[in-house]
Amino acid sequence: MSNCVFCNIPEESIVNDYKHFFIIRDSSPVTSLHSLIIPKRHIVSYFECNKEEYEEIPLVLNTQKTELKLTDDAITGFNIGMNIGEDAGQTVFHFHIHIIPRRKGDIDNPKGGIRGVIPNKQKY
């Protein structure tokens, strides 16, 4: 798709490449090394992945987890997420998965993790 930012990623921005996906660093990172897993095929949502793409996602996530931890041994956890639909916060309508490295003390109280997308639901 010619006007899609993820369909036009410069080669030098790609940090890893797989059969169906490539990895870039997020341009507005939540934490250092925040990365995006992006399918090579233009699809809008996770729910549009084909069988081969679905099967490759766990491999890509596990490989990225390992590579990120080797790059920075201060990483002690991860948030993994995707925004599907405008009401869920999707702003780039080319499916992608965020893998966000976390480090001890990077926020005062991480309890609730991903629930923080709706701030008053994070603490329970």
Give your account of this protein's structure.
This protein has one domain: HIT family, subunit A (2-Layer Sandwich). The relative contact order is 0.19. β1 (14-17) and β2 form a beta hairpin. The chain starts with 13 loop residues before the first strand and ends in a 21-residue tail after the last strand. It is built from 1 helix and 5 strands; from the N terminus they run βββαββ. The protein has one helix at residues 51-71; strands at 14-17, 21-25, 35-39, 75-81, 97-103. The protein is an alpha+beta fold and 124 residues long. Helices cover 17% and strands 23% of the residues. Strands 1-2-3-5-4 form a 5-stranded antiparallel sheet, covered by helices on one side.
List low-pLDDT spans. Answer: none
Helical stretch tally? 1
CATH topology: HIT family, subunit A
Structural class, judged by helices and strands?
A: alpha+beta
State the shape: globular
Number of strands: 5
Mean pLDDT: 94
- CATH top level assignment: Alpha Beta
- Return the string of H and E elements: EEEHEE
Separation of the first and last Cα atoms:
42 Å
Residues in helix, %: 10-25%
CATH architecture: 2-Layer Sandwich
For this entry, give a set of tags.
5 strands; 1 helix; 23% strand; alpha+beta; globular; five-stranded antiparallel beta sheet; HIT family, subunit A
